[in-house]
Amino acid sequence: MHAGQVGWCALRRCVAAAALALAAQVAGSAHAGEEPAASGRRLELSMRPKAGDVIRLELRKEHERQMPNQPPQRSANLLRVTIEVLESGPQGTVVRWSHLRPETAPSQNAGTSFADAESIWELVQEIRYELEFDPGGEFVQLRNYDEVRPLVDRMLAQMEAVLARRGDAAAARQATELVQRMFSDRGNLESVLLREPRMFFFPMGKSFPIDAPREYDAQLSNPFGGPGLPAHGVLRVDWVDGNNGLAAVTMDQNLHPDSARIVIESLMAKIPPERRPKDTDLDQLKVEIRDLARYTVNLRDALPERMDFERSARVPGGYRRDAVIMRRLQ
Predict the structure, then answer these.
(1) Which class for 29: exposed (0-12), middle (13-18), buried (19 or more C-beta within 10 A)?
(2) Looking at residue 14, what is its pLDDT?
(3) How many angstroms from the chain centroid is the CA of residue 123?
(4) In the list 49, 236, 256, 329, which could disulfide-bond 213, CB 3.0-4.6 Å?
(5) pTM value?
(6) pLDDT by residue (tens digit) across 230-258?
(7) What does the pLDDT read at residue 243?
(8) Tell me: the pLDDT tens digits for 180-198?
(9) Any idea what the Cα angle at residue 296 is, between residues 294 and 300, rounded to 5°?
């Protein structure tokens, strides 16, 4: 394998990990009020679900990617989510998020056998995430981290075994070590594993301007440690339907061009010197990553009735698209 190919492999691992870890994060402010309403030309979503509420979701995940000189790979799966509200009050909200067995529907080129997927999902179903949010709806912590951590380690070990069965055991170990380093930090683990829950609860407690989009500069967490990743975001309210108690909100977020180099340099710092690609000009590596999320929000509890999220990443010669669609079940 020549230097250019080695450089591309390192970049591919970087983009794949970053696409998993870069959750849609934006700073919002909470406004107290008895009823959420479009007052003062702002949409105030200060309500919260009540303790004891149980919310059930259908969650569909779609994945598509193409690497140089390879056909596109596509996969999709459908699963159920149960959200139990454990606490809700002036101090914030705590929920328990859990998954049910998915109905896996891989396409012809999905590249993952049903048996392999089943072995990993058996472990996924054992995990119950207890998520804590502050009064403004901002994520605070995974409250039962000490319980979740051993289950995550078991899941990573199973993934390594699956990769080893499908090819080079040394390459499988190297890939697993990369993911383990990414998960070794609690903050990064919370960002990666809790991407869907954090996206779903994003509207809760927020205030959105109605008359004009709100532009902002964000610093997203770096999955490999090091400096934060600059991003430019836009929030807007598309419509408010007071009669039916619904509103539509869109978030559009693009990583700053400098963020690609920050991620790659952070990754290179984690790789032992003897494994780093040689003669790779990082300035020539162009990476574009975009997050687009559309919410239809229930104004009674400030949670989505439906969420459509898409992350797209384009690199030299390839692309990756991850989509998450969540809708409430009656």
Answers:
(1) exposed
(2) 45
(3) 19
(4) 236
(5) 0.74
(6) 889 999 999 999 999 999 999 998 888 77
(7) 94
(8) 776 777 887 888 788 899 9
(9) 145
Bridge-partner residues for 92, per DSSP?
89
Residue 221 identity (one-letter amino acid): S
Q: Which long-range contacts (CB under 8 A, 24 or more apart) does 58-63 make?
A: 58/326, 58/327, 58/329, 59/196, 59/324, 59/325, 59/326, 60/323, 60/324, 60/325, 60/326, 61/322, 61/323, 61/324, 62/321, 62/322, 62/323, 62/324, 62/325, 63/320, 63/321, 63/322, 63/323
pLDDT for 218 = 78
Please say whether the beta carbons of 238 and 204 come within 8 A: no
pLDDT exceeding 90 applies to what percent of the chain?
Answer: 31
Task: Give the whole-angstrom CA distance, residue 249 versus residue 257.
Answer: 26
The backbone region for 120, taken as left when phi is positive above 0, alpha when psi lies in -120 to 50, beta otherwise, is alpha
Q: How far apart are CA 176 and CA 319, in angstroms?
A: 22
Helix residue ranges per DSSP H, the chain: 3-21, 114-124, 145-166, 169-183, 186-193, 195-200, 257-270
Per DSSP, the residues of 173-223 read HHHHHHHHHHHSSHHHHHHHHTHHHHHHTTTTT-EEESSSPEEEEEEEPPT
Query: For 254, phi and psi rounded to 5 degrees?
Result: -125, 135
Higher-scoring residue by pLDDT: 92, 5? 92
